[in-house]
Amino acid sequence: MSCSDLQRQLVSFLESPASYPHGPEEIRVVQTHISWVFIASPFVFKVKKPVDLGFLDFSSLEKRRYFCQREVELNRRLAPEIYLDVVPIYKAASGFSFDAEGEIAEYSVKMRELAHGWFLSDMLAKGLVGETEINRVVSRLRRFYESETPTPEIEQWGTPEKLKISTDENFAQVEPFVAKTISPAALEAIRHFTNQFYVTNEKLFFERIQQHRILDCHGDLHLDHIHITPERLSIFDCIEFNDRFRFIDIANDLAFLAMDFDFEDRRDLANLLLKTAARESGDDGFLKIADFYKCYRAFVRGKVESIQAIEPETAKPQE
Asked: What single-letter DSSP state applies at residue 149?
């Protein structure tokens, strides 16, 4: 039996409510270019796809086990109440099962489902995001950043030389989409701006390192990854598959969220977020570098959406 046949059987198993020990009434499925997410209330099970995209490698079962464990460990920093465990899925002669029978065929991350309607994206759509919500998010992230320890291994990724690894990789990975999702002129303009910023602001990058602004951050901080109720604030789904995407400037981390506000035509909230973060952290250089990182984040978003656009099964997520 081919690997793709096994994957189809596994997905079919996980799509069935009868497969789960807790007996959910229905299963909703969300698919991305790197994972399947099965919402089986009150839990969620996330399975990584066996893919190797260069910047991430889930190609072997052992790698998927490792990165499932990393996902739980890293996300417990900001959302310990959500990330419950790594749960193996077994394959026996009778088929797939969560019971310990046969061999382990796959691993899943088991999470607690979050209440609908309280994601920051939902709140924004309802016009319910303002100064109070921004202050809560910034305050939580400030405490998180203060709890992280800067090390030479992490801080090296704040140098222009190391940052260029990621930006050059992005430019190369977008080449197949030129004249499809991005014009040649736009790509060259962004490439020129990026490389010129490295040259003219080299001192600023090294000042950021000296001030210990390069930390093990979240790495994927956008509206859908923040859940905010009157009682609790949860920030989840950080990057686990590539350390250099988390070993970043805090301005880079927050620029993703600011870019997301910009994308939703809420530049006022983007500016409020960045100014509040700079003030709360006493960071004089924050606003000098934030726009550079917003450009970087917007380009990454375009790259990911370009990749998804050529995969029919992820072009329109199932819900």
From this structure: P
Question: Do the Cβ atoms of 89 and 36 come closer than 8 Å?
Answer: no
Q: Are 292 and 3 in contact (CB under 8 A)?
A: no
SS3 state of residue 283: coil
In SS3 terms, 218-243 reads as: CCCCCHHHEEECCCCEEECCCCCCCH
DSSP state of 317: -
Q: Which amino acid type is present at position 278?
A: A
Q: What are phi and psi of 156, to 5 degrees?
A: -60, -25
On whether the CB atoms of residues 308 and 32 are closer than 8 A, the answer is yes
- pLDDT per position as a tens digit, 229-258: 999 999 999 999 999 999 999 999 999 999
What pTM value is reported for the model? 0.92
Strand ranges inside 115-231, DSSP E: 214-216, 226-228
Q: Is the dihedral of CA 56, 61, 65, 71 positive or negative?
A: positive
Structure-token pair, residue 183: 């014009």
Tokens representing 229 are 């109720």
Q: Which residue has the higher pLDDT, 195 or 311?
A: 195
Whether 13 and 95 have beta carbons less than 8 Å apart is answered as: yes
What is residue 81's DSSP assignment?
A: T
Report yes or no: 64 and 7 within 8 Å, Cβ to Cβ.
Answer: no
- Is 70 exceeded by the pLDDT of residue 313? no
Distances (CA, A) of 316 to 29, 113, 312: 11, 22, 8
Closest CA to 275 of 293, 254, 297, 248: 254
User: What is the residue type of 2?
Assistant: S
The single-letter DSSP state of residue 113 is P
Distance of CA 164 to the CA centre of its chain: 20
